[in-house]
Amino acid sequence: MDRPISYLLIAGVTIAGIAASAYAAQAASGSVSITKSRGEICMVSNGLPNHSTGNFPNSGNPHRIAAQSIEVCVPENPVKTSRATALRGSTGFALNGVMIRPGTADYYDPSSRRGFSRNPASGWKLDGKGAAQQLGLDSNNAHVDKRGLYHYHAKPTGLLAKTNSSLVGFAADGFEIHYVGGRAKSGYTLKPGNRNGGPGGKHDGTYVQDWQYTGGAGKLDQCNGGELNGKFVYFVTDSYPYFPHCAWGKVSRDFGRP
Description:
The protein is mainly beta and 258 residues long. The protein is built from 2 helices and 20 strands. Strands 12-13-9-8-14-15-19-18 form an 8-stranded mixed beta sheet, with no helix packed on it. The longest helix has 4 residues. It starts with a strand and ends in an 11-residue tail after the last strand.
């Protein structure tokens, strides 16, 4: 029987050894254990990062960061299918125990004091990164929800500064998520011209509907997936959609609920 490998990530240094299969990271406030067992990769964390954050609450985000009790599992050996499944809420988790939640539940709403609300009537949904200032994202492209859950909407700069690996985390279907900078090119482009109705103005990326998938040679697929060293993975990109919003494998039951 093969003995699995454990990885301990502290201050960006990876040490490999023979032990129970696990990834682990700790910081002054963050705590996470990622283990492989019975065909699954499971993450247990308090949801706090291993890097500094912005100030919360702030003008765009009224919530305070609070420790959580998170336990999610994904398939260890995911299988890519021919049909993508749209993801809502959390779409994966980072190696430091922070959840990945690139989407929002906020829509353009001219009747709201803030100009947006949870009312979907307008059909124009705010993009987390595109509306970063309105939503109070910090320099790590993250903010806090009403539960106190700190989560990433786009490239996790604080995490990347502490690692020498391209591996960022795992998606809801178990495929790895990597960041390789400009080598991974998004297949999404901004729509030309001005918006037809809604908030008006140019398609500038503030709203999800500003973007369209155009693909092309050398571009990632619509779920931000592609090949890395001969295997299928998802990528974090510097432009929309930043993280995958859909999955090609079977989505874990832990990500099928709000």
